[in-house]
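thought: fold this chain, then report.
action: predict
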Amino acid sequence: MKINHFYWAFLLICSLPQWACKKDDTPAQPAAVSLYFPAANPSATWDTSTPEQLGWTTAKLPDLYAYLEQTNTRGFLVLKDGKIVIEKYFGKDLLGNNFTTSSVWYWASAGKTLTSFLVGKALEEKKLTLNQKSSDFLGTGWSSLTPQQEGLINVRHHLTMTTGLDDKVSNLNCTKPECLKFLTAPNTRWSYHNAPYTILEKVITGATKEDFNTYFNSRLRDKIGMEGFWRYETDNNIYYSTPRSMARFGLLVLAKGKWDKQVILGEENYYNEMINTSQNINLSYGYLWWLNGKASCMVPGSQTVFPRSLAPNAPADLVAAMGRDGQIIDVIPSQNLIVVRMGNNPDNSLVPINYHDELWAKLKEIIDKK
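observation:
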C-alpha cells in the first residue's frame, strides 16, 4: 500500500528524546465548573468569554492566528466552560464567499464520531447490541466473505476498525460486496478502512427501521440546535455544517451526552467505552474517536505501532474527532475545553495527526498558565 509522506514525518517525531513523547495515563478530573449551553437553536445567541478574563497569554494570539491562516484554516473556535473564547474565520467558503459564522464546511472523517454517537443511541433504545452480527441488520451477502466468515463480524468491529476486511483493495471507500474481501479474523488487526465504517449507516437503518437522516436529525441534530446535512459523494456519506454546529457536538460530548438539563444519550456504559481504548491493537482509538495520553498509537495506512501518544503537546485526556484536510473537534474534560478547526488541507494526510500536535504546541503557549 502506498503510504504518504506524513507517515515518515510521524516516524521522525517518534525518534525524539523520550521526554518529547512521554506517556501520561493519569486520569484527569473534570473542572468543578458548571457548563454553559446556548439554546438549542442554530441562531441562538452564544455567550462569550475572553482570553484576558481567563488569564491566557494573549501576546501569543497573533502567532496562532497567522499559523491558522497559513495552514488553510477556514473556521477556528475555542470554548471554555461552554462559552466561546476564540472565534476566527479565514479565507473563502465552498461558494467562494468570505468565510463567516454561517458558512458551511465538510467534516470528512470527523463525522465518524456522529455515527458512533448514533450507534450508542440505537443501543440505548434497544434496537441493537454491539455483539450482534452485522448480517442481522445488513442481511447475508453484504460482503464477498463466506457466510461463516461474515457471521463473525459484529457491530463493535465496525466501530473499532477491526473487521479484518482487506484494506489492500484499490478503493478503500467502496462498500459493494466485491470490494469487501477477507483478510484476517475480526479483532486481530486494526486498520483505518473507510468502507466498514460507512456500512454502519446501513446497520443503524436496519436496526431502527428509520431513514438514516431522519434518525440523525431527530435523535441528535435537532435536539442540540445543530444545523447541517449529510451528502453522498461517490462512496462516502459526508456531513456538512457550520463550525458552531461542530462546537455544539463537542459540547454535548464534553457534557457526557447531556444538553443542559436534557439527556440526549443516557447510556453511560456506551459513552465511556466510546471515548476509551476499544481494542488492544491501537490503544489510541475508541469507537471512531481518537484518544490522547496512551502508551502507543497507530496511524492510517500503516501497521506500525508507534511508542508515543496521539498528541504529546495536548492534554492527556483529550479525545478527538479528526478528518481529512484537518477537520478537528477536540474535547478536553479536565479543562472544560472544546477546540474546533475546519479548513483546507494543511499537510496531505488522511487524518491530521502531525498538524493536530503542531496546533497544540501553539495553543498550549496561550492556554497554559505559567
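thought: worth noting. The radius of gyration is 20 Å.
final: C-alpha cells above.
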